[in-house]
């Protein structure tokens, strides 16, 4: 569950963002849309605890992550929040399955080869586990990112423009996948995008305006 | 998992890793070899010098006289008459005088005519067999016996000159008989074949009045014998009083046609020269190590730019700052440890090769590898310090990476 009050954030003195309150229960994914420059990615980073707001509260489960220290935030994020980024990043030297395992390792959670294989098969990347991430297509990399995000059973799953580099077919597939997997994991799903193709799948949405 | 990330990363960029490891390896190997060689040479020189206050021999280079008479590495300066030597031996200031006759060899090992005082000077003990009792009997230094696989009861023929020159220089008809083997003394004795003075006189009596410059290999053997006058090559002196150090060399050099040389003075001069060589080699090795450090730094640092996304990603999936710092730091340290181990292995193998190939004229003991471990810890510390210095800045950059900015800038 995610619940925020109205939050303010500024990178420097003269630019500041004001974000409306948001609420996202586990079974009702939230879509956040807005033009570029409206602060979508900033908002997502605030929700992930990668940035600290100037004021306002962000509750993930029952924890207000704005009150945590930097190290506590890192630990909390590792355990409970997963992010799928617009462009997939990997530990390049590790194989796909090691990358997925790293998601659990850094979160301090145990995982097994079997768990990873089952998850990978659900995302139809079961045959790619021994490859290096750089050898995969963009769509495959995206699914590996999703697998890594899901390996920890997160409370909150954040996705930043997950469909922007995909064609219509893959776009729909990824959205269905994210919805299905997050509801199966009982995680709140928040998607940030400017991709209007996505809108039809989400009744619960929030539009950000540039100031 | 951390170890796996580190090793996989090193393998992923194996070219840069290999370059750094090889640079470090060469640096460590050279430094280690030079230190070991220097130490062994210095120590052996000191061992061999055992209270020899003065060396007396034929006129020539004093350093050559010392090197040939004490260390048996150079050619003799020539011969002196036993009768002249006797005057010095009986001088009241002389406590002990050991006459030596040398210039022949057996397959690269020198045959030295001496008396038993020469053996007791180096506290030599017979390991097997017995001491020589008659002319043409010899005892072998431990290295000679070991490398030539000889035992008491064996016979061999010496050759004239110090190099293994072939048949025409063999003293045919004069068989030496091995009567004993010496226990290792870690002195020059280990590399020598010792026989009574009389043996050398016997072998050379056919071409008596032999050319005084024995180092000249092509001298004519057809000299007609004059009167049987015994000759020796050098005399090792020990004085009763330190004052003799000052007076005796002057007396000998000015009043006789012989030469006196102080081993300590000559060797200090030599070590001064060699020290420069060792220092130069160590400086080169030091430069190699610094270059290696720079290479580690550059490969980590340049890799940081291309890795910033995955480092930020690692942070975002729960990796702490300190873990990230450790990953980058350990990558640098791993390279250094690998370079150090490779360097130690290489220098140990190199030392064994040097001993086998006799680059040092059979003078290095096979025990040289034991010398290698002495300064190992110091060298390891230096290597690790280089690795730490090279890795600390990239590690700190990884520690301070701005996750949000890096990931948003993708």
Account of the 3D structure:
The complex is a heterodimer of chains A (211) and B (410). Chain A has 211 residues and is an alpha/beta fold. Chain A has 6 helices and 11 strands. Chain A has helices at 40-48, 70-80, 96-106, 113-122, 138-150, 168-184, and strands spanning 2-4, 7-9, 17-19, 22-24, 30-34, 58-60, 63-64, 81-84, 156-160, 188-193, 205-208. Chain A has a 5-stranded parallel sheet, sandwiched between helices. Chain A has a 4-stranded antiparallel sheet with strand order 4-1-6-7, with no helix packed on it. Chain A has a two-stranded antiparallel ribbon with strand order 2-3. In chain A, α3 (96-106) packs parallel to α5. The longest helix of chain A is centred in the C-terminal third of the chain and has 17 residues, at 168-184. Chain A is globular. In chain B, α3 (62-71) crosses α9 (263-316) and α9 runs parallel beside α12 (376-399). In chain B, strands 3-4-9-6-8-7 form a 6-stranded mixed β-barrel. In chain B, strands 2-10 form a two-stranded antiparallel ribbon. The longest helix of chain B has 54 residues, at 263-316. Chain B is α+β, with helices and mostly antiparallel strands. Chain B has helices spanning 2-12, 14-48, 62-71, 82-89, 116-121, 142-148, 197-204, 244-255, 263-316, 321-356, 368-372, 376-399, 403-408, and strands at 54-58, 80-81, 94-106, 109-114, 126-129, 137-140, 155-160, 170-182, 192-196, 231-232, 234-239, 258-261. Chain B has 13 helices and 12 strands. Chain A binds chain B through residues 41-42, 45, 48, 50-51, 70-71, 74-75, 77-79, 82-83, 85-87, 89-94, 98, 101-103, 105-108, 148, and chain B through 1, 4-5, 8-9, 11-13, 307, 309-310, 312-321, 323, 403-404, 407-408, 410.
């Amino acid at each position: 569950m995610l619940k925020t009050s109205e939050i303010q954030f500024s990178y420097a003195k003269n630019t500041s963002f004001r974000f409306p309150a948001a609420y996202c229960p586990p079974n009702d994914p939230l879509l956040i849309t807005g033009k570029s420059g409206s602060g979508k990615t900033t908002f997502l980073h605030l929700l992930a605890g990668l940035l600290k707001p100037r004021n306002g509260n962000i509750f993930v489960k029952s924890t207000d992550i704005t009150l945590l220290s930097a190290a506590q935030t890192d630990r909390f994020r590792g355990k409970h929040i997963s992010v799928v980024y617009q462009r997939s990043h990997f530990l390049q030297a590790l194989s796909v399955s090691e990358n997925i395992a790293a998601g659990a390792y850094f979160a301090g959670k145990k995982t097994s080869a079997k768990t990873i294989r089952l998850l990978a098969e659900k995302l139809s990347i079961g045959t790619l586990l021994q490859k290096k991430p750089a050898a995969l297509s963009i769509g495959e990399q995206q699914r590996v990112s999703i697998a890594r995000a899901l390996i920890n059973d997160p409370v909150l799953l954040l996705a930043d423009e997950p469909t922007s580099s995909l064609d219509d077919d893959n776009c729909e597939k990824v959205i269905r996948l994210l919805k299905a997997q997050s509801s199966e994991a009982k995680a709140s799903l928040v998607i940030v995008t400017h991709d209007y193709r996505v809108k039809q799948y989400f009744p619960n949405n929030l539009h950000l305006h540039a100031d | 998992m951390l170890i796996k990330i580190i090793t996989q990363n090193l393998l992923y960029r194996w070219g840069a890793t290999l370059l750094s490891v090889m640079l470090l390896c060469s640096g460590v190997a050279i430094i280690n070899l030079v230190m070991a060689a220097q130490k062994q040479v210095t120590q052996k020189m000191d061992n061999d010098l055992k209270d020899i206050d003065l060396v007396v021999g034929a006129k020539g280079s004093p350093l050559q006289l010392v090197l040939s008479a004490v260390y048996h590495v150079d050619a003799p300066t020539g011969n002196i008459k036993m009768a002249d030597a006797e005057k010095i031996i009986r001088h009241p200031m002389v406590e002990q005088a050991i006459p030596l006759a040398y210039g022949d060899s057996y397959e690269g090992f020198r045959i030295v005519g001496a008396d038993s005082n020469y053996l007791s000077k180096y506290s030599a003990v017979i390991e097997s067999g017995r001491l020589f009792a008659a002319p043409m009997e010899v005892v072998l230094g431990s290295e000679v016996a070991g490398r030539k696989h000889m035992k008491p009861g064996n016979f061999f023929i010496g050759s004239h000159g110090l190099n293994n020159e072939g048949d025409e220089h063999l003293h045919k008809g004069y068989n030496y008989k091995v009567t004993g083997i010496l226990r290792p003394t870690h002195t020059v004795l280990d590399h020598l074949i010792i026989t009574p003075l009389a043996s050398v006189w016997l072998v050379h009596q056919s071409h008596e009045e032999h050319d005084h410059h024995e180092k000249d290999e092509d001298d004519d053997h057809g000299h007609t014998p004059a009167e049987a006058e015994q000759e020796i090559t050098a005399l090792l002196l020990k004085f009763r009083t330190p004052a003799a150090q000052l007076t005796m060399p002057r007396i000998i050099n000015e009043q006789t046609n012989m030469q006196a040389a102080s081993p300590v003075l000559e060797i200090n001069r030599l070590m001064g020269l060699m020290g420069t060589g060792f220092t130069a080699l160590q400086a080169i090795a030091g430069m190699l190590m610094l270059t290696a450090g720079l290479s580690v730094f550059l490969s980590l640092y340049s890799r940081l730019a291309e890795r910033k996304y995955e480092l930020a990603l690692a942070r975002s999936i729960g990796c702490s700052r300190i873990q990230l710092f450790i990953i980058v730091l350990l990558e640098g340290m791993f390279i250094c440890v690998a370079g150090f181990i490779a360097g130690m292995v290489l220098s140990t193998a190199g030392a064994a090769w040097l001993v086998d190939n006799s680059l040092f004229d059979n003078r290095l003991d096979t025990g040289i590898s034991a010398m290698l471990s002495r300064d190992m810890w110091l060298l390891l510390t230096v290597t690790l310090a280089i690795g730490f210095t090279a890795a600390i800045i990239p590690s700190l950059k990884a520690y301070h990476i701005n996750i949000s900015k890096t990931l948003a800038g993708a």
